[in-house]
Request: fold
Amino acid sequence: MELSRKSSAISPSATLAIDSKFKEMKANGEDVVGFGAGEPDFDTPQHIKDAAIRAIMDNKTRYTPAAGTLELRTAVAEKFRRENGLDYKPTNIVISNGAKHSLVNAFMAICNPGDEVIVPAPFWVSYPEMIKLADGVPVVLPTTEEHNFKATADDFRSVMTEKTKAIVLNSPSNPTGMVYTKEELQEIADFAVENNLIVISDEIYEHLIYEGKHISIASFNEKIKDLTIVINGVSKTFAMTGWRIGYAAANDKIAKIMANIQSHAASNPNSIAQAAAVAALEGGMDAVEHMKKHFEKRRNFMVETINSLEGVSCLNPNGAFYIMMNISQLIGKEFYGTTIRSADDFAEAFLRIAKVAVVPGTGFGAPEYVRWSYATSMDNIVEGLERLKRFLLAF
Reply:
């Protein structure tokens, strides 16, 4: 019996795969240090947990509207007005089971078979696979470290065809940590409006920026706002990865389609987590600022240490909590009888020999890089980088 060809062709998540291997080794008692997980290592703030407990005690345990409770959609709309200068109605907001679910809904809502979606690389591993699931065609647009891993309007124009339906923006970026400036976003917005292209703007890391300021591309004018689907959520900002609450903002037509899709695929997001998300959005940013200070300290230490080592290097990321380490100088070299041909070989050897788990950049469209997450303790970071020093001595 032949199963779905489309679904069978989908690649597994590289980030989840390395994290699963790390957890398996750790469970077996191996002395392994992990840098794969894309989640804050801080606890969810107490006032958010208290709100969830109240929701349970108040019996908010039944189905909600498919697009989310009116209370949460109103809180999200107010967040966009307050923080991003964007005027949305609750009907423009769709609450989903995490920002990943919001992205799937978005691609499903806009793509017809053969529609092309331009994805700058390095990219988050799931974008191309999500586009394929929606019957779209991912068009990978390579960027370079020399240009801070950012695509320009001219770059997008160079790969645009008559089949291009949309472009993907992720700022701050997973995996590079880069942040687009206001001027760069304005040029891309003008390009999208000129060519009537939808912009999928993934802004999940917006509050984790260490230099510069987050600007939503949808905020420039009504034309680009109408073309943009803004994706966000509470996972990264409020250390709520397991609560699975993401949200999208879009024009009336797209939002309605996304809500309809979700009504058949998942009914509604978790009712208790939705109540907790309201508390998160309305409860202030003190815990976020505390978390960000620790991330910045860890980032600075990692960047300085990596750039002091021979054979590897990295840029200083402006946001998120990832570092892309350049291993191009190691490609082609032998290590314990194994030739390092790509980031996959490096990551496999690093995990096997040094017991350090990093994510190979191959799944991100960057085969000469590996991704480190600094959403882990400083003790782990110090130990992991010390093992990297010893590991590199063998080359």
